[in-house]
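Much of the work behind modern protein science is quiet bookkeeping, done one molecule at a time. The protein below has been through that process, and both of its lines are reproduced in full.


***
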Amino acid sequence: MHLSENTMADPTHLPIYVRIQQFIRSQIAGGRLREGDRIATELELARHFDTSRATVARAIQQLVYEGVILRRPGSGSFVSTRAITAPLQLTRVYSFEDKLSAEGASIDYQILAFSSQSASETWAHQLHLDAGGLVYQLRRLRIVSRRRMSLEVRIFPAALGQRMTVEMLQNQSVHQILASLSMPVRHVEGKIRACLADGALAQDMDVREGSALLVRDYVLTGDGRHPLVCGESYYRPDFHIDYQVEDTGRMEQP
């Protein structure tokens, strides 16, 4: 990597490790370093700033802690891929797409499969159907800013699945599809867990086999808590859920 002095004017009163951090941040902000690019080695930075490698290591470690830089043993340090985040809302029903669109992310879909099959006992129970009844399963990738970020596995009752078109599945979130069919989602019930990607999941998600994935299991219900859809969504390791908790109760006086 080429080190340029004109990236920024370093205030001489700042500690050298801070100036090194500012230098790297400015190269990222200015587009000289992009996601996945390898940054200068500790030796190159030490020579550039006329300091010790220990000082450089201190600067880099803070950037690693903040998630700006990713260290790969034996390969060097690289600009981290920006994490995709979605806030967890507990007072309104938001789709994954709604949350990311609010952050300015672009979302596309890749349909892997959409077919009819017999309902398992779990699906039948969640959708209030008879076991073995007809359902439709959707397997679809969500592409966020050209990255495979999430795999949807959705189960629809036959009467609902038969009303869906390819155009809907290629361009709309499930929440949007249901709303267009006059079946808006009123309630979401689910759980969050983790799993390890097996061979098929790893290939679909474009991650290494054995990678840890975040999984959301859920049932979407409409008016009167009538179940509309069940299933799960798998998320890459660089997907984060942001949340806040506020205690609105009064503090008891002693």
Observations:
- The first strand starts at residue 69 and ends at 72.
- The domain at 84-240 is CATH 3.40.1410.10 (Chorismate lyase).
